[in-house]
């Protein structure tokens, strides 16, 4: 562990040579404090004292008989490989849809047949289409999205009964709301324009009066 330097390594070797266990333990405590001073960045980490004692044991080549507040690790424990992480099952050709789409699909499968389930299926398909276009940077047809949805749901969600997403209820509801918002914004702008004209006319009248008074 080169970050501790040769001085600490020599101190550890000196500690191992002491015959009295109490003296070794006392010197080991002093070495731990010195190691913390040489590497102050370790103090910001959780359980940094435990890490220092582990490092001391490693520097001693796993051969140090002292009183420690923590159990020393074995060579086998440090050489043990970490467990392989479990990745989400969504991989391969459909990884760009993300885990949230899978969760929505599972929720839609659990719903009873009805308007709510049909609406959720169309919401899922719309989000799948957006994710596909963003990831692949190309336009995708609705029949491809319907096929992917059917495959991801193990043939339990089917949207082949609608012609396209643009003719679905979700599409019309979303666009009608957007159009209504645009109309209201335009109306607000038109209502504000006469007020601006009156304000400008009043300013012009004041300026003309002031000019006449000066004359």
Describe this structure in words.
It comes from Chryseobacterium limigenitum. Residues 173-215 are annotated as: Disordered. This protein has two domains: 3-79, no CATH class; 86-173, no CATH class. Residues 171-176 have low confidence and may be disordered. It starts with a helix and ends with a helix. It contains eight helices and no strands. With 215 residues, the chain is mainly alpha-helical. It is rod-shaped and about 85 Å long. The protein is 65% helix and 0% strand.
Largest sheet: none
Helical segment count: 8
- How does the overall form come out from the CA principal axes? rod-shaped
Structural class: mainly alpha
Number of strands: 0
Number of domains: 2
Distance between the termini: 93 Å
- Low-pLDDT runs: 171-176
Question: Gyration radius, to the nearest Å?
Answer: 36 Å
**Helix-strand topology string:** HHHHHHHH
- Which percent band covers the strand fraction? under 5%
Mean pLDDT: 78
Helix content: 55-70%
Characterize this entry briefly.
By secondary structure, the chain is mostly helical.
Short descriptors:
215 residues; mainly alpha; 65% helix; rod-shaped
Secondary structure topology:
Blueprint: H1 5-17, H2 21-38, H3 48-59, H4 75-79, H5 99-110, H6 115-136, H7 142-152, H8 169-214
Helix pairs in contact: 1-2, 2-3, 5-6, 6-7
